[in-house]
Specification:
alpha+beta
Length: about 350
């Protein structure tokens, strides 16, 4: 068992109720030529630290975290790894919104009024972040945050997957920094406002596992990006008149409290591919907590064999505290466990 005798310090935030635990001190340097190399190193050699801060007794099943690392892309002012109950994701929109505010407030990027822009390197690529800044009392005060996604695309439309207990299920697969299966909840007998969350999680997880087994994915940049991250169940709306509710179940049955930034990017890419949205048309998406992200496709481009769009996603994040985590050497449970 890996030992840890130091302390890990964090800043605690949330976006739409979804936690963002940002490591500020105590993590060892993570080597690697590229950010995907760093992701592999963290997964293979430092996973005991992920469990330490994500799992109980310091976290919980649905905790989410961020590890800053050294950037390796031109134009990147900051780089991060994302961590959760199962491992290391490639993109996270709700964390990006929080990181926008955090980076300005903590001087990682210089505040420029009225809008501060900077490059955030994620495992999926470079994301452009915009933070609204007001000068209040001589200090910058951050407001709304938006980011422009990596190229997002429709991987599959109207795919049919055989799902245990459900039979043939028709769904789309979209990429917005991570891959998601996307389908209306009503097609699998669910109502996002009336059904029990436990039922939503169970069915979404079955769909994820069945789709991952039946449909190999590909990504034009790196095979490490080609995995199904989760399933997004929607209310069937497009978000043009009223916000379209969706629930994202990702990683190991983790439930996103936010509308899911990478998922929103995937939904916009699917809408554009279907002719249901055009470049510049605004949409709104609502989470299980009622939090809302705005989104719109801002540009079209090509990546490999895929027609892609860049998606701008906007939201707000808030501080909830700060932590300093330690573990005593004879505390086996203190190294992390999960009950659910």
């Amino acid at each position: 068992m890996d030992e840890f005798d130091g302390a890990i310090e964090t800043v605690e935030m949330h976006t739409g109720g979804e936690p963002v635990r940002i490591v500020t001190a105590g993590y060892p340097p993570i080597p690697g030529r590229t950010i995907l190399d760093k992701r592999r190193h963290a997964r293979e050699h430092l996973d005991h630290l992920r469990k330490l801060i994500i799992f109980e007794p310091r976290g919980h099943y649905d905790m989410y975290g961020v590890i800053p690392v050294a950037p390796d892309l031109p134009g990147a002012d900051m780089a991060v790894l994302f961590i959760h109950n199962e491992g290391y994701s490639t993109m996270c929109g709700h964390a990006t919104v929080a990181l926008g505010r955090y980076a300005v407030d903590h001087g990682i990027v210089a505040a420029v009024s009225p809008v501060t822009e900077f490059g955030l390197q994620c495992p999926c690529g470079l994301v452009r972040v915009r933070v609204e800044v007001d000068s209040a009392g001589g200090r910058p005060r951050t407001g709304a945050v938006s980011f422009e996604s990596v190229p997002s695309f429709a991987f599959a439309r109207d795919a049919v997957v055989d799902v245990a207990g459900l039979g043939a299920v028709r769904l789309d697969i979209g990429y917005g920094g991570a891959f998601y299966a996307v389908l209306p909840a009503s097609t699998v007998g669910l109502d996002l406002k009336a059904s029990r969350l436990a039922d939503i999680v169970e069915i979404a997880d079955r769909i994820t596992k069945a789709t991952a087994a039946a449909m190999p994915l590909e990504h034009p940049d790196d095979p490490d990006l080609a995995f199904l991250y989760g399933t997004i169940l929607t209310d069937g709306g497009d978000g043009s008149d009223v916000p379209s509710r969706n629930v994202c179940v990702f990683a190991e049955r983790e439930v996103d409290r936010s509308p899911t930034g990478s998922g929103v990017s995937a939904r916009i890419a699917l809408q554009v591919a279907r002719g249901e949205a055009r470049i510049g048309e605004a949409r709104r998406f609502e989470s299980i907590t009622g939090a809302v992200f705005t989104a719109r496709a801002v540009a079209a481009e090509r990546s490999g064999r895929f027609d892609c769009v860049r998606v701008e996603v906007g939201g707000r994040a808030y501080y909830s505290g700060a932590s300093r985590f330690t573990v005593e050497q004879d505390d086996a449970l203190g190294r992390g466990f999960l009950l659910r």
